[in-house]
């Protein structure tokens, strides 16, 4: 297999693009893929202040690296969830800090247990709630808070094409309209106090992000979060991989086709009240937002 551009030995085949590339041309191609997504979906500009949600995994570290190399003003935020299993949280924090030092960028760290006296899994147990739901509410809150306090313009996350397409398949199968309205590559803020969310690596696959990290010698956490992705999600991924193998490009066509028609699902979000949480003053449907209720801030 030879690189389509220079005819040297290719290190990766990209059948969905009818392409094979050597290390140098693949590296260049990844930068262009991210730049294309940023421009095509009007995510941000070189003047924007970007907060990258860093988990220590390959997707978010590849994203931070690519944005920095493209000349964007991107700072990192790492949220330590206090997950002890497999030393997951401490190890991913360490890798995120090491990477931030390497690229000379600022990494802000929020430690949930230090702030609230309890880790995410312990909170979930005490509230009899699913760990990922407690995690989601908490991460969202701290991402918005950090963005607000640091005067950021946009929050960028490392979502890749495989994960987005698998989530989309699951949401379509069960017609989850709420989620179908939220899968865009770029979501502008709906109200004051909220932030735009961008997914610059949305055109890149998991494999591409992994190869990028290997080539750039980015040390990322290889373990999955112990609470991650149930069997159902992995099944959707597996099914899409089978389809992709026989029809290269199907995964991207599936996701981009949805993006083109996403407005069909948006109707439900139109009448958002402009109410705010009486404790933290962030936009909220209820008097007390889900974060303040979860962490019992209304009782203090
Ligand atoms: S980090 Fe948090 Fe994920 Fe782990 S606890 Fe669940 S939501 S799986 S992206
Ligand atoms: Zn080449
Ligand atoms: Zn609140």
UniProtKB/TrEMBL annotation:
Keywords: ATP-binding, Metal-binding, Nucleotide-binding, Transferase, Zinc. It comes from the Bacteria. Transmembrane segments: none annotated. ATP binds at residues 53-55, 59, 79, 158, 163. Zn(2+) 2 binds at residues 277, 280, 289, 292. One of its GO terms (cellular component) is cytosolic tRNA wobble base thiouridylase complex. One of its GO terms (biological process) is tRNA wobble position uridine thiolation. It holds the Pfam family TtuA_LIM_N. Residues 49-222 form the tRNA(Ile)-lysidine/2-thiocytidine synthase N-terminal domain. Gene3D superfamilies: HUPs. The keyword Amino-acid biosynthesis does not apply. Residues 2-26 form the 2-thiouridine synthetase TtuA-like N-terminal LIM domain. The keyword Metal-binding applies. GO terms for molecular function: ATP binding; metal ion binding; transferase activity; tRNA binding. SUPFAM superfamilies: Adenine nucleotide alpha hydrolases-like (SSF52402). Zn(2+) 1 binds at residues 3, 6, 22, 25. This is TIGR00269 family protein.
